[in-house]
Amino acid sequence: MNDLRKKVQIKELISAERNKNFEEVVIGYSEEEAVSESQRCLNCKNPMCVKGCPVNVPIPDFIEKIKERKFNEAYKIIKTENFLPAVCGRVCPQEKQCEGNCIRNKTGDSVSIGKLERFVSDYYSVNEENTAEKNNKKIAVIGSGPAGITCAGELAVKGYEVTVFEALHIPGGVLSYGIPEFRLPKKIVENEIDKIKNLGVKIITNVIIGKSMTIDDLLYDGYDSVFIGSGAGLPRIMGIPGENLKEIYYANEFLTRVNLMKAYKKDSETPIKIGKTVTVIGGGNVAVDSARTAKRLGAEKVFIVYRREEIPAREEEIIHAREEGIEFILLTSPVKFIGENGFVKAVEMVKTKLLESEKSGKKDFCEIEGSNYLFETDTVIIAAGQTSNPIISSVTPGLKIYGNGKIFADSETNQTSIKKVYAGGDAVTGAATVISAMEAGKKAALAIDKYFKNEPETV
Amino acid sequence: MYRIIKKVILNNDVTMMEIHAPFVSRRCEPGQFIILRVDENGERIPLTITDYNREKETVTIIFQKVGLTTKKLGLKSENDYIQDFAGPLGNPAPINIKNKRVLGIGGGVGIAPLYPQIKKLKEAGCITDVILGGKTGEHIILKNNFSEISDNIYFATDDGSLGEKGFVTDILKKTELSYDLVIAIGPLIMMKSVTDITKKYNIKTNVSLNPIMIDGTGMCGGCRVTVGGKTKFACVDGPDFDGFEVDFKECMERQTVYDEKHICFMGAK
User: Fold this and answer.
1) SS3 sequence, B62-124?
2) pLDDT (tens digit per residue) in B169-191
3) What is the DSSP string of A331-392?
4) In terms of Cα–Cα distance, which of A51, A77, A54, A79 is closest to A65?
5) A186 touching B (Cβ < 8 Å)
6) CATH 3.40.50.80 matches B93-208
7) Which alpha helices (DSSP H) does A3-83 contain, by range?
8) pLDDT tens track for A26-56
């Protein structure tokens, strides 16, 4: 008998090999492994895991189906609450959500809920049909990232006619341009989006709402409601000297060149240029993704420099990064970039220390005077967060914004200051997770549906 | 996919295309640009809108065959399709009809984006003079179009085959320098040289920047430029900026990031 305190280990590519290619690192459970892992689920009466899930997937229910080897049924259960399970199984910070709440966590490993979700999603290959009766309401969704896609899917299965407008040439938002292939294969994203299209959702690429058309145009054109899921937008400028030297990239540019424009492939016409030593500034998922990508592109040394002590990125990815040879320099912050012939060649760093902030209880940090030192590097990638994109808010009178341009939306309904216009995801919260954007897209869809169900019949 | 309605070869290097793009033509204005990909593996390149027709739902672009993408685009014929054509992007040029006397200065393919701005100013009743420069007379595009909308038109060519032999700045120095506004669009070095002169006379000078871009919506930050000591994104804050405030030296540096790579790539062909 296996030790039930231990989870079934997942197979992964060998770190010394995978850090030279873009293949998916985590191989995923086999049927036997998935069934074996599912048997560790205690099917709690009061499942804490579900409470930890932002979209309330009925976790024990789907795991019960895996125990019975009814994998397709397991998938359908997840799909009742989550429109992107193959994505969530791969990128959600499960250790802070469902798995973090799992009762088994107290005495051993939590059930590998994410890996099981991924298993059933990858197993399922049936083309779903949308049987919902059409209600003749037209909805425009702005952005085809996790928030927009979730909102579109939820509304489509309720009978709405949904059109998604995407600014880039490929749908998926951050799933396509941001998260790297080795963590979230683009084939998986395409499959998930195809499933949404199968529900009757129309996706129009190359349309920049705010430029090609305004929200007023959409309402004028006959859309009954609009959902804004346009994402976070602009990279945050650190504002330190030398930031515009060549080979200093914002992570968005670096990752977009590689993921969306496939700069890592030989036949791509979009280049990417990196040196032998790459220094990534920041500690979130974007920073870790950038570092691992740089390694795969051939950098000999890759460093992650973070001003605090605890890296906020997804736990599994931090482990993967260390295995792949990424080095972490903590409690350190850049103060200046130094160039030669227009290219960056060194970063002046300063050491930091944590302070116990009285106000928030959150540990703040300060620079240690006199601890500056020079750190030589050929390339810098700045992953220090994002600020709001002004394209929509600047041309939408009456759209209330807050905190440097984020779109205001009601926390319950996700309605903006304009009737019939809803918003969610990073455009509202600032940079956050895929799953929190999905949660917002879902809440908005439910609110939109409620609005039209309660709407008095108009002539 | 976006259909090429019309293709006109303006000279050996420069081609004009009218593209069917209803989502671009609906709201585009002078000064704005589009981003296109010729085919599936293609890179995204920005091109300024030269003209548009809202009824026909078309947008006209003019491009110089300098890199792989523009060369591939040049090989396309009428009724062929372009993979992606997104826009309009950037802000409309700041067209202020209070500027009674305007001088437009266009260099090389920069003459193309100058055209819709001068056209709009002329329609608004301004006095519009233009100086157009190029390698040879043949390299000066849209001569007839400009003659319809300009009060005075001057040419400068490297070989003297049209107008004066020399640079647009040589002509600029000879004008009365009494304009309310100068709009200079062309190579960075030309725009810099123009502002070096106009600054002395304190004539407000707008320039249009076209740095390396990917998404064109502010996301990537690749197109950043220093304007008035602050970092701006050419795509969402521009592409037109006050020429006195632009750090041209940095722009020229940043434009060369991929030079080596492009030379290698083209040499291998």
Assistant:
1) EEECCCHHHHHHHCCCCCCEECEEEEEECCCCCCCCCCCEEEEEEEHHHHHHHHHHHHHHHHC
2) 999 999 888 899 999 999 999 99
3) SEEEEEEEEETTEEEEEEEEEEEEEE-TTTSSEEEEE-TT--EEEE-SEEEE---EEE-HHH
4) A77
5) no
6) yes
7) 15-18, 31-38, 48-52, 59-67, 71-79
8) 999 999 999 999 999 999 999 999 999 999 9
> How far is it, in rounded angstroms, from Cα A197 to Cα A226?
18
CA distance A174 to A147: 10
Instruction: Identify the sign of the CA torsion A285, A287, A292, A297.
Output: positive
Best mutation site among A166, A169, A245, A257 for testing chain B: the one with the most B CBs within 10 Å? A169
CATH node for B2-89: 2.40.30.10
DSSP-derived pairing of the beta strands B205-208 and B181-185: parallel
Chain A interface mutation, best of B215, B230, B249, B264, highest count of A Cβ atoms under 10 Å:
B215
B41-98 confidence digits (pLDDT tens)? 899 999 999 999 999 999 999 999 988 999 999 999 999 999 999 999 999 998 877 8
Domain's final residue, options A91, A123, A155: A123
List the beta bridge partners of residue B207.
Answer: B184, B241
Contacts of A168 in chain B (CB under 8 A): 86, 215
Tell me, what amino acid is at B210? N
- What distance in Å separates the CA atoms of residue A295 and residue A325, rounded to the nearest whole number? 8
CATH number assigned to the domain comprising residue A339: 3.50.50.60
Same-domain pairing of A66 and A93: yes
Residue B187 and residue B106 in contact, taking contact as beta carbons nearer than 8 Å: no
Helix or strand (DSSP H, E) at A203: strand A202-204
pLDDT tens, position by position, A57-91:
999 999 999 999 999 999 999 999 999 999 999 99
